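Hey L., structure's done. Input below.
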Amino acid sequence: MDYLDGKDVEITRHDLAKEPPSRELLERLIDESHLEDFVNTRSPAYKERGLDVSRLTKKKAIDLMMEEPNLIRRPLVVAGRKAVFGFKPEELDELTGK
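Output:
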């Protein structure tokens, strides 16, 4: 991720379409009360399916993400037990301590 380049942060990059996160990881990271922070509502798959994030349960959202990884908001940056879904500079800085 370009934003973190040069910040002395070790990064392991994954193509989420080819190497999606595990169901267990998503279940641990996703907060059901804020699904809009985790679901990529700009994804063509979201629009093609006529989804409404406000009507999804956590289980259904994760089921859809496992079926279609493009529904995961990107980038997904994980550090220990915490994560940031989507490009949020302040949260990334807090997460990485940089």
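The chain has one domain: 2-96. The first strand starts at residue 76 and ends at 79.

-- N.
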